[in-house]
# Entry
Amino acid sequence: MKEINLTTKIAVYLLEECSDIEKKLIEAAKSATLKAYAPYSEFLVGAAVLLENGDIIMGNNQENAAYPSGLCAERTAVFFANATQPDQKVEAVAVAAWHKGAFTHDVITPCGACRQVLLEVENRFQSPVKILMYSEDGVYVVSTIKDLLPLSFGDEMLK
Ligand code: THU
# Structure
């Protein structure tokens, strides 16, 4: 028997340590939480996608009384970006969450399904996507979704 160790390095920044464009993207994600439709969980998530041309596309979670029919903020934003600007590479995605009257102190990280979708985006554009995960106490940053999705299943398996 042998063991494989998987390690992930996550950079943790204070908001003021982020670059100007990263701050702008995080602010967009935070403001997108205000328009979330989350009457069931009352957990309002905002995402902002930075495209190669500089455009910032916002999205938020859209819930449904039949729970699985809703969609997370990250996928709402990324799918809209890809639907409207299919030739624009996705460079980064920021995500923030508002719950019980405040932005969360725990870092908000993409769910498993959103990680899989973000992997597809990386593979589609053949380019890593930086993920900025916001909390009131700090921002987790990874330079590729692969850091959040080890042993991933991607299109290369189908070739
Ligand atoms: N949610 C997101 O939008 N993004 C995440 O990364 C985690 C969870 C949403 C789904 C649901 O509307 C609510 O947060 C509670 O799970």
Observations:
- The mean pLDDT is 97.
